[in-house]
Amino acid sequence: MNRPLDGFTVVAVEQAVAAPLATRNLADLGARVIKVERTDGGDFARGYDHAVHGTGAHFVWLNRGKESIAVDLKTPEGCDVVRRLVARADVFLQNLAPGAADRLGLGDLRAGQPELVTVNLSGFGAGGPMEQRKAYDMLIQAEAGLISITGTPQSPAKTGIPTADIAAGMYCSQAVLAALLRRCRTGAGATIEVSMFEATVEWMGYALYTQMYAGTQPARMGLSHSSIAPYDAFPTRDGQVLIGVQNDAGWRALVTAVLDAPELADDPRFATNVQRVRNRAECDAAVAARTSRWTTPELDARLAAAGVPAAQLKEIDQVVDHPQLRARDRWRAVGTEHAQVNALLPPVTFADVEARMGDVPALGQHTRALLDEAGVDADDLIARGIAAQAPPNRHS
Q1: 11, 34 contact by CB (below 8 A)
Q2: Other C-beta atoms within 10 Å of 360: how many?
Q3: What's a Pfam family in this record (predicted)?
Q4: Contact present, 91 and 74 (Cβ < 8 Å)
Q5: What does residue 363 show for φ and ψ, rounded to 5 degrees?
Q6: Distance, CA of 250 to chain centre
Q7: In angstroms, what CA-CA distances link 90 with 180, 233, 277?
């Protein structure tokens, strides 16, 4: 069976997280993704660290299944190569600095190719007072209000993963799929703009509506929840367990079937969620006094048996070896320039075909082949330093 995007080609002038995530999603679904990189080091994410056998962890996560061509876009010849590749492609995606694509002659590629889908990913979008501002993930989280509701009552915090980048990248790949679907029906391409800021503000969701219509923003609650109780980490004999009771039936199950405290079920302070939130300190104390009688595995098993939402607080090493991932066979080996590594299958699972888990390319690994495909003199451009070719990937 064919993968959903087999036969489609994407050319991406991309770096960092958001755009590479978008195109990796497309590569996993079968698209051919040609990644255009700088000759002097390539994608910045290659050098964020050397955690994965000498390759950056971000880069390994975001760039499997792509072909890398290293060309100097500051030269007319380098830009001409990109235009030639785009002329044979279905999608062009870029996250250069605002205005840079236009200055390079890569800003209006649909003029002679109306069926092309182009995606312009930026921090704040075209126009507006912040168009030219730097737009790293932490800065976007701050401007979008995410940091203001994340953390503890005493201290705000950014999220531990690049949420703004991920939000924007997911909207980019979703938009490409929608545009290609429409093109299949109408023959017309699309010009798409995605703003990291607007993607992150959209993810603020209920917090925006609470502010607009109740006049307050949700408080920073740490592990707790401003509208639900009990919803927090509770002590056990050897650690803690996260418990999140979403409704009154769940409360009754918790106190009767798990905590052996049926007298709390109809306690007027706790009988409804509204009352439990109003009396959160007393409610949490009543639960904590009882959860500490069991070990973490014992309490986790009791909660699961009673159908009460709960989870153990995992460290990352425990997630890597998580029994759920093992049972569902979610890890695959992919090649990098230094070693084979494990990579997680994408969360979208097709019943009839598996995602294409391609190798992570070395910088310029496919330059010569792509220059030949573009119909230019590969030897000349490489000799002049306008393009760079890496050795073959030894660990494919």
Answers
A1: yes
A2: 29
A3: CoA_transf_3
A4: no
A5: -60, 120
A6: 32
A7: 8, 49, 53
Helix axes 163-186, 196-203, angle to 10 degrees: 100
Distance CA 262, CA 270 (A): 12
pLDDT, tens only, 53-84: 999 999 999 999 999 999 999 999 999 999 99
Q: Give the pLDDT mean for 118-141.
A: 94
Q: How far is CA 122 from CA 156, 164, 245, 361, in A?
A: 26, 11, 39, 25
Query: What is the number of helices (H) and of strands (E) in the chain?
Result: 16, 12
| 77 vs 345: CA distance, rounded Å | 38
| Paired residues of 32 in beta bridges | 9
Q: Which residues contact 311 (CB under 8 A, 6 or more apart)?
A: 241, 242, 300
- Give the DSSP H or E segment for 169: helix 163-186
> What is the rounded distance in angstroms from the CA atom of residue 210 to the CA atom of residue 263?
34
Q: What is the DSSP letter of 346?
A: P
How large is the greatest C-alpha to C-alpha distance in the chain, in angstroms?
A: 83
Q: Are 168 and 193 in contact (CB under 8 A)?
A: no
**327-381, pLDDT tens digit by residue?**
999 999 999 999 999 999 999 999 999 999 999 999 999 999 999 999 999 999 9
First to last CA, the chain: 23
**Structural tokens at position 203:** 């993810």
Reduced to 3 states, what is the DSSP secondary structure of residue 168? helix
pTM, 2 dp: 0.92
13: Cβ contacts below 8 Å, ≥ 6 apart: 36, 73, 82, 93, 94, 95, 96, 101, 106
Is residue 68 within 8 A of residue 390, CB to CB? The reply is: yes
Taking 80 as the threshold, does the pLDDT of residue 395 lie above it? no
Q: How far is 357 from 40, CA to CA, in rounded Å?
A: 27
Is residue 33 within 8 A of residue 43, CB to CB? The reply is no
Q: What is the C-alpha to C-alpha distance for residues 266 and 251, in angstroms, rounded to an integer?
A: 10
Count CA within 13 A, CB hemisphere, residue 184.
9
Name the phi and psi angles at 184, rounded to 5: -60, -30
Residues annotated as catalytic (active site), given as ranges: 225
Residue 226: partners with Cβ closer than 8 Å, 6 or more residues away: 218, 219
